[in-house]
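Key idea: predict the complex, not the pieces.
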Amino acid sequence: DGGITQSPKYLFRKEGQNVTLSCEQNLNHDAMYWYRQDPGQGLRLIYYSQIVNDFQKGDIAEGYSVSREKKESFPLTVTSAQKNPTAFYLCASSPSGAVSGNTIYFGEGSWLTVV
Amino acid sequence: RKEVEQDPGPFNVPEGATVAFNCTYSNSASQSFFWYRQDCRKEPKLLMSVYSSGNEDGRFTAQLNRASQYISLLIRDSKLSDSATYLCVVIRQGTGRRALTFGSGTRLQVQP
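Result:
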C-alpha cells in the first residue's frame, strides 16, 4: 500500500546533538512538507519542497535543515541550534500543483524528546 | 494576530449534545478551508472540506462565512468517539507557498 513512513517514531536526544528524522513516501508525490506540533498547539510549517533538489523555508525553519535528493525522501535534521526541539514532528506529501486538504497525506509522526 | 485562530477549549459535552466550533482567519485571500480531526498523539486526518454553500456529512455540518471570515463545524448527537481535537485548516490563494495553515485546534471531550 502507498503511504508515508516516518522513522523513528520515538527519539531521545541529548542537548547539543543533531538528529535526523526520516520521511519516505511511495505515492509518487512531488511536494513534501515538515510540520512541528507542540502540546495544545496546531501544526507549524518548518520546510517544504515542491520538487526534487529544491526546498523552501516555512514559518519556523531556524535550527532545522532538510534535503531533497530523491523524490521519495525528505529527511529533516534538527540541529543543536534549535533551542527547544522537544515536539511532535509530522511529515506530509501531496501531488504536484495546488495542495488541498483532501490531497495531502500525513505520516504517523515522530516524537522527539531532548534529555 | 494569528492567521488562523480557534478557541482551544476543552469543550466538555454529554453524549447526544450538539456542539459547535468556530474558526476565524485573518487573510481575506484565503481560498480553501477544511476541518481535520486529530486524536491524541496521532497524525491529523481530514474530516471534511468547507464549501461556501455549506455542506453536511452525516452528523457533521460545516459552514463558511466569507464576510466575517470564519468557518464553523457543528456536530449533532455527539458520540464518545467524537472526542478529539478539531483543527481548522486554511489555504491562501495566490501565494508562492503552497502549504496548509493550521489553527491550534479545539479539544472536544464527550462524556457519558
